[in-house]
Amino acid sequence: LILPFVSLAREKMFHLQGVLREAGIRVEGFMGSQAPAGGLKSADVGVATIEKANSLINRLLEEGQISSLSCVVVDELHMLGDHSRGYLLELLLTKILYVAGDSVQIIGMSATLPNLGDLSNWLKAELYTTDFRPVPLTELIKVDRTLLDVNFKPVGVVSPSINLPQDTDNIT
Question: How far apart are alpha carbons 125 and 9 in whole angstroms?
Fold first, then answer.
């Protein structure tokens, strides 16, 4: 499982450890300076940041062990468009696609990808989309202090949280 940030990866690793422990599934984290002794061989599920995942893929390629992967899940796949780290995610996915082919399933997830058709073609993937939201999203528009719904009907007023003095000449 690839996540973009150490904090997200740690949170997901702890969650999966709690959920999968009783089933005897070992979940280990590869992020920052953290990596288990024995590397990927010591884990059934690895949770990694983009940089660590790229390093793990390189190691598997060097050792001829890419076939030991069965599935790679990339959460926040829209990070492909990130100007500083997107290239690395693209590179590691390209290596998996080129070397492993159909033997490794790639699952990408994002709530904000604009070019789904192009991306699914590149990944040779089935495309699944949904509008389901476990937490409802309410969209509002603020004009001055008035809140409007998406149909521009007033739904409330925002009261100022900070009262600034009217005479700003004497503020230091």
Answer: 24
